[in-house]
Amino acid sequence: MKKLILLMSIATIALACQDKTRPQAKLPNIDTTNPLLAEWNTPFQTPPFATISTKDYRKAFDTAMAVYRAEADAIINNPVQPTFYNTIVAMEESGELLDRVSSLFFNLLEADRSDEMQALAMEVQPKLVKLQNDISLNKTLFERVKHVYEHPGWGLSKEDKKLLEKQYKAFVRSGANLSDEDKELYKKYSEELAQLTLKFGENSLAATNAYALNITKEKDVADLPETIREGLAMDAKARGEKGWTVTLKAPSCRPFMKYSTQRELKKQVYMAMSTKAIGGEYDNRENIRRITELRLKIANLLGYKNYAQYILEERMAGDVKTVNDFIEELRTATYDYAKAEREEIENYARTTGLEGNFEKWDISYYTNKFKEEKYALDDELVKPYLKLENVIDGVFMLANKLYGITFREANEIQVYHPDVKAYEVKDSNGSHLAVLYLDFFPRDSKRSGAWMTEFRGGKNDVRPLVSLVMNFTKPTESKPSLLTFDELETFMHEFGHSLHGMFATGKYGSLNGTNVYRDFVELPSQIMENWATEKEYLKLWAKHYQSEEPIPDEIIEKIIAAKNFQAATGTIGQLSYGKIDMAWHTLETPYEGDIIEFEQNATKDTQLSEPIPGTGMCASFTHIFSGGYAAGYYGYKWAEVLAADGYSLFKEKGIFDKKTAQKFRKLLESGGKEHPMVIYERFRGHKPQTQALIDQMDLKKK
């Protein structure tokens, strides 16, 4: 024992000595009158949004990039032999000022952008990519990293070793081993790619905002629920129009398609949805061709046959064959059921008076009518019990019951838009855990969808600033925000991501929170959705927004009975997106043909009806062309398997079982410190099986 203690002491002294060799950068002058560069004397060092203007970002970016370059130069020019601390840890801790500025700017670009911000993004993006390339392709710096990787010494923890491995691989995967000539090509391709992915997202948002269907005849909206009519009337009023206006934002177009009987109007909306960014001012088709070509060129430079092979090397799935086999296993298990589900809806439509052919713009309406008839369940029946404020309380209550954490609305914390609310989150022992921002409602400055992000990640004693951004049903002049059940599930999904971020622990930010493999990151979000259909949970908080009466048992029983309604159809839809993604990113030669034809060929065996000529979703598929899910969209279903298998432990032990919750918290706290399969098996006790998801869908009862 004494010998072991002595060895540990020597190791500690050796590491401390190494730490003294850390380089000191010669930093440029920093203008602390710029709020982005000054110290934030705010609660929990949160961003002082009220004092930041768009013009502050340009100077802040220039300064922060100069600081990052100086920090990297200090490491590069350090005359002392490379060590884990003076090279690897020094690299990990460099660029913090740039991270601060970038996190604020690019998060707000998604959530509350302006024309001025879009213009600045196009200006700044190539500079950021060039800076990153200059650092990651620096020969001397890579030699230092490689030396430490090959001679790590002793005394490193498991977490230290993971950081070393991650940094070394990041350099290699960013072209550090390329020839000088190929490095120049890599720089050229990556800088252009960054611009194009940004442009793709801008076009998608602009195309969404460009369409509106104004309805002036009351008979054309008479069959819509009152809350939907009110929302459409508010949109019309905001646009200076009379009557009711349908936009391509989800809380507008989706309920219109679900409830309207006006087939011609629905056809117009459907065609607008299905041709978004195809043709016209915001056409994304050429951007797709060039984005996929550049990704292929980069992959080829780095020694891969295609971009998917390059990406999947750093995923749980591991390779293209595994992903394709996984998609096919699920497709085979669910396609016939999905086909039967669609035929059931078509037959129902004909028996209830549909004239002419059953068209794609009829699907939502008749699916909802059939669901109402089969389960006596409809969104309008459930929405009165899902007042947004009650839902927030319910989600926070669940986190408290599982993990003991608490939430306090913190009005002293500045927010970036009046719609946003900030909360201080405390751990079970009363210590500060995180700040959580919630941004619920759609606006022209916000992209569609829902996502979790961070203004600051967590590490050591630095606690994270987490943000959830969504596009939910707005309050009307007569009613509060009443969520659909889908919106409840979406909130719980994103909240699962937030827990992953808020529970971040460890020394290194790049290994914490959601910094994990893309096909693992959706596990915490997918598993949270399961509580939405638990009677024991809903009875605790879901109550009528007017009478305060708790949600009746019969409504909960209908929700539970209907939870697998159209499950096979939904799965096939997700697999279809995954197949499109894999088709684009397994190309081994650039594609010069028709984008819509490519999409249709990729999804032939997942189509439940004939596609409409000229329609497609690739041109607005931001997940894979501007959102970081390239060659990774399959990960949603992959993580659903993990979630189905993982939630079965809660079902076995109790849905509020604290021991099980603490085991799952350990999984969340682990971040990317180990391979995700190791982390998952430690929680569950075995490897996940695809059959767990198939069983959860309960298809044999259909």
Average pLDDT, all residues:
94
Query: Number of helical runs?
Result: 29
SS strand fraction? 5-15%
Structural domain tally: 4
Q: What characterizes the major β-sheet? A: 5 strands, mixed
Q: In angstroms, what is the radius of gyration?
A: 26 Å
CATH topology of the largest domain, what is it called?
A: Neurolysin, domain 3
Ranges where pLDDT stays below 50 over 5 or more residues in a row are 1-18
> Could you say which overall geometry the principal axes of the C-alpha atoms support?
globular
* Classification by helices and strands: mainly alpha
How does this structure look, described?
The chain has 702 residues and is mainly alpha-helical. The protein has four domains: 176 residues, Neurolysin, domain 3; 64 residues, no CATH class; 160 residues, Neurolysin, domain 3; 245 residues, Orthogonal Bundle (Neurolysin, domain 3), CATH 1.10.1370.40. It has 29 helices and seven strands. Helix 2 runs antiparallel to helix 3. It is globular. The chain starts with a helix and ends in a 5-residue tail after the last helix. The N terminus is likely disordered.
Quick summary of this structure?
56% of the residues lie in helices and 5% in strands.
Task: List the main descriptive attributes of the protein structure presented here.
702 residues; Neurolysin, domain 3; 4 domains; five-stranded mixed β-sheet; 29 helices; 56% helix; 5% strand; disordered N terminus
Give the SSE map.
Blueprint lengths: L1 H18 L34 H23 L7 H10 L2 H16 L3 H22 L2 H12 L7 H16 L6 H31 L1 E4 L10 H13 L5 E4 L2 H10 L3 H12 L10 H17 L5 H6 L7 H32 L11 H13 L3 H4 L5 H16 L2 E4 L11 E6 L5 E8 L11 E6 L8 E5 L15 H18 L15 H4 L1 H6 L6 H4 L14 H9 L5 H19 L9 H8 L19 H4 L9 H19 L4 H13 L5 H9 L6 H7 L5
Parallel strand pairs: 5-7
Antiparallel strand pairs: 1-2, 3-4, 4-5, 6-7
Helix pairs in contact: 2-3, 2-4, 2-5, 3-7, 5-8, 6-7, 8-12, 10-15, 14-15, 14-23, 26-29, 27-28
